[in-house]
Amino acid sequence: MTGRTLRLRRLRRTTRPSARKRGAQPKVVALGGGMGLSASLAALRRITGDVTAVVTVADDGGSSGRLREELGVLPPGDLRKALAALCGDDDWGQTWARVIQHRFQSRGDLHEHAVGNLLIVALWEQIGDHVQALDLVGKLLGAHGRVLPMSAVPLELQALVRGHDPAHPGETGLVRGQATVALTTGEVQSVHLVPHDPPAVPEAVEAVLDADWVVLGPGSWFSSVIPHLLVPELLDALVETKARRVLSLNLAPQPGETEGFSPQRHVEVLGRHAPKLALDVVLADEAAVPDRASLADAAKRLGAAVELAPVASPDGLPKHDPELLAAAYDRIFRMHGRIGPWR
Q1: Sheet holding 172-176, edge to edge
Q2: d(Cα 38, Cα 46) in Å, to the nearest integer?
Q3: pTM (2 decimals)?
Q4: Burial (CB count <10 Å: 0-12, 13-18, 19+), residue 166
Q5: Could you give phi then psi for residue 176, rounded to 5 degrees?
Q6: Residue 255, phi then psi, degrees to nearest 5
Q7: At CA 59, angle to CA 34 and CA 252, rounded to 5?
Q8: What is the per-residue pLDDT across 66-101, written as a single tens digit (0 to 9) for each?
Q9: How far apart are alpha carbons 210 and 193 in whole angstroms?
């Protein structure tokens, strides 16, 4: 029996479904990073007050990459975005969301650093605990939920990419770094993390095991969504949890990383990276699925049903509308969930 299995068993013994009163809200864990996770969180906080975001920590670009390189810390950017997305719509919440998202513009070292990144890193150094510091930031912001890193160590994303070098379009090579993978003009074949067996944050594992629903995606497929499945303890929890699992698809392929991908190919790629993971629902925008039968077949191979709903922003941009996405999640939780005490 591996040490990882023993740790997961201990967490299962200490994680008990909490006794809930009728009318209580569902516990939802959302996994991802960047703007995709932010869209999901902005929707989920509208339908439940019990949201936990589990965020990727492989970013190596921009302000996060500079802080990571200089101080050796976790990249704070995606954690900051998740906290901002969980801020309320009142004056307090929206003011703090703008403050932590604010970027300095200067000719010096502060140029393009986000206020929230500096605040998070400062609290990590003061408190010495990633989770406690993020909980404190969430309390300050009045965040409607909790934000956790998926691992307590900075991770490097590496990808096997065919045609990354335009001079050799038929060759497959190794591409290092989340920022580089996200912008590659080649075809990503697979991704992995360095270190290969990173430890999961225990609170993230506990949240998955204790959830009613786990939401994966939307977001950058190879650099924000799939990395969660490459943390062994987190994947074990996702496989063994009693929660229902919904995969929320992107509205359009991402230039570079998933150029030319159909909705069903997104599902197939995720399944290849985590063949033991079963899903319950695949959510997609009804206007973004030209071949519904192929998507249904791909989802069925992972045990899932397909739910189509209008979730795109009415302005025509490829972004999710928080209200429409919230309505879709709410309907899925009610239609596909087990009869829960929150209903």
Answers
A1: 172-176, 156-162, 187-194
A2: 13
A3: 0.90
A4: exposed
A5: -110, 140
A6: -55, 130
A7: 40
A8: 999 999 999 999 999 999 999 999 999 899 999 999
A9: 26
User: Sorting pLDDT into bands at 50, 70 and 90, what band is 155?
Assistant: very high
Residue in the block written with tokens 């990383």: 257
Alpha carbon of 323 to those of 41, 49, 273, 304: distances in Å? 11, 16, 31, 24
Residue 341's pLDDT band (boundaries 50, 70, 90)? Answer: very low
Residue 270, amino acid = L
- What would the two tokens of residue 294 be? 């192929």
| CB-based burial label for 334 (10 Å; 0-12, 13-18, 19+) | middle
Closest CA to 218 of 189, 253, 242: 253
- Beta-carbon contacts of 317 under 8 Å, excluding residues fewer than 6 positions away, are none
What number of other Cβ atoms are within 10 A of residue 290's Cβ?
9
**CB contact at 8 A, 266 and 306:** no
Q: Please list, residue by residue across 172-196, b when 16 or more beta carbons sit within 10 angstroms of its beta carbon and e when fewer do.
A: eeebebbbbbbebebbbeebebeee
